[in-house]
Amino acid sequence: MRATAIAQPNIALIKYWGKRDTERNLPAVGSISITLRELYTRMHVEFDADAVADSLQVNGAPDATMLPRLSACLDRVAGGDRLRARITSESNFPIAAGLASSASAFAALTVAGAHAAQKTLSIATLASLAGQASGSAARSLLGGFVELENRGEDIAVSALCEPAEWPLDVVVAITETGPKAVGSTEAMEISRHTSPFYQSWLEQQPHDLDIARDSIARRDFGRLAAIAEHNCLKMHSIMWASRPPLVYWNAATMRCLQTVRKLQGSGADVFFTIDAGPQVKAVCLPEHTQAVAAALRDTPGVVDIMISGLGSGARLENAR
Ligand code: PMV
């Protein structure tokens, strides 16, 4: 009745922003991401017949804020009549700061919860369950380049390319470690209801997905870079034009973009992407990783750097 699973966060190259069904947390658009290798969340779930309520420890400290979402996710995985659970979570990177911590957390929780409840679930079912908790979490069930599609009444995830088939690196420039001001669920709804650019975002997404899918199949870094930066800036344009405006960037975020432009000018194969937070993720070919990391580390306002390759999907570590 206990299990431990590990999952890595993923970074979207073609972004998910907006929901078509808030009840079932279904995305309004497809997305394409890369799963990271060095960053992880480890989740331990233990069902306990003597416990009267679920409990959660995050990085060694009790956490009541996240608990309701985790409990609801376990209800969907193990059934509403399940035993109460002791949940322990451990991440090696800042949480709730735009580093996709909810993706790795819910992917790991879904796998650990299913095994602790002795349920054998397919990847498709696990992805759908993780996606109901956090849309991006469905993508962390798989490794490498992952596409999330809207299929009928549900979602479907598929691996476009394994990590070893196109080993890119990601340099994360951390410009702020605190939690973000507006969570993505609330922010997406603000955008859907108020942004004048939201409708064209929905209309253009299939085109961006086609270009990215094709660039990945051909290992065309330059074409992938151009569509990923464009798609990221479009998502932030929707946010900026929302009411109230959603501006996740700080001054260092902008400086990091300029650093990436300079690196590109000097011939480095690198591009940026930014999620609902102030951190900049620079995706590059491995021969440029050290130069990209050094340039971002020297960018004023950058407090830390993390380097990661591409990794595998969520998996069970042990179950008893
Ligand atoms: O899965 P959520 O609800 O945390 O939303 C993720 C939103 C972005 O990170 C901004 C984009 C994405 O596709 O991951």
Q: Can you offer a commentary on this structure?
A:
By secondary structure, this protein is of the alpha+beta class. 36% of the residues lie in helices and 25% in strands. It is built from eight helices and 16 strands. The protein has helices at residues 67-78, 101-116, 123-133, 184-194, 198-218, 221-240, 251-265, 289-297, and strands at 2-7, 10-14, 19-21, 26-27, 31-35, 41-47, 55-58, 61-62, 85-91, 145-151, 154-161, 169-174, 270-273, 280-284, 304-308, 315-319. It has a six-stranded mixed sheet with strand order 8-7-9-6-1-16, with helices on one face. Strand 7 (55-58) and strand 8 (61-62) form a beta hairpin. Helix 2 (101-116) packs across helix 3 (123-133). The model has no long low-confidence stretch (mean pLDDT 96). (3R)-3-hydroxy-3-methyl-5-(phosphonooxy)pentanoic acid is lined by residues 12, 15-17, 31, 102, 134-136, 184-185, 275-276.
Summed up, the helix count is 8
Q: Roughly what percent helix?
A: 25-40%
What percentage of amino acids are in beta strands?
25-35%
Ligands (ions, cofactors included):
(3R)-3-hydroxy-3-methyl-5-(phosphonooxy)pentanoic acid
What Rg is obtained from the alpha carbons, in whole angstroms? 19 Å
Short synopsis of the structure:
This protein is of the alpha+beta class.
